[in-house]
Amino acid sequence: MPKLGMPDIRRPQLVRATMAVIERVGLHSASISLISKEAGVSTGIINHYFGGKEGLLEETMREVLRQLSHSVKSRMAALPQDAHRERINAIVAGNFDGYQTENKVAKTWLAFWTLSMHNKKLKRLQRVNEMRLLSHLKRELKALLPQSQAELAAHSVAALIDGIWLRGTLNPDGIDLDTAKRIINDYLDMQLASSNK
């Protein structure tokens, strides 16, 4: 039995190992055996603390989501509360942060999205992430647009973020943050122009 505190020591090591194995062999072939070898721990530790592969993927995604939340919040904290366009761009930039676009993280995201359709715990994580993004966007957009238009624009910007991220992840050249910002700002310009007519 590991000594007290072992999970906190092992957790980052196991998260990194999970992403590395998923990047190398894909989710389907990412066995507990391969992950434990990558992390340098016994398979028993993974099974004991995480209940197997799905539990370890859940913990891995929690860490990815913590990183995402930290990136968005720290960018927004550096801006005035009334700098709404800049704050929207901070939300966008946080979603395309360097960590989020690393190959191993991107492949883990793709695995997570696939599994979340059939796993209640992962689906709940995905829903929390989606609601957090929409909440940030709605808060800023409601200061710029009528409420009903702001709601629709928030969903549209979220869809653009996901779509651009997915296309960039599948592109050998990766994600281009400047292009992502330009596409989203073009959309926002159209929304603002139509609300001022």
From TrEMBL:
Name the record gives this protein: HTH-type transcriptional regulator BetI
All copies of domain HTH tetR-type, residue ranges: 8-68
Taxonomic lineage: Bacteria, Pseudomonadati, Pseudomonadota, Gammaproteobacteria, Vibrionales
Pathway note: Amine and polyamine biosynthesis; betaine biosynthesis via choline pathway [regulation]
Primary role: Repressor involved in choline regulation of the bet genes. Repressor involved in the biosynthesis of the osmoprotectant glycine betaine. It represses transcription of the choline transporter BetT and the genes of BetAB involved in the synthesis of glycine betaine.
Tagged with keyword Ubl conjugation: no
Cross-referenced SUPFAM superfamilies: Homeodomain-like, Tetracyclin repressor-like, C-terminal domain
GO biological process, alphabetically ordered: glycine betaine biosynthetic process from choline; negative regulation of DNA-templated transcription
Keywords: DNA-binding, Repressor, Transcription, Transcription regulation
Database matches in InterPro entries: BetI_C, DNA-bd_HTH_TetR-type_CS, Homeodomain-like_sf, HTH-type_TetR-like_transc_reg, HTH_TetR, Tet_transcr_reg_TetR-rel_C_sf, Tscrpt_rep_BetI
Positions of the DNA-binding region: 31-50
Domain of life assignment: Bacteria
Gene3D superfamilies assigned: Tetracycline Repressor, domain 2 (1.10.357.10)
GO molecular function: DNA-binding transcription factor activity; transcription cis-regulatory region binding
Pfam families: TetR_C_6, TetR_N
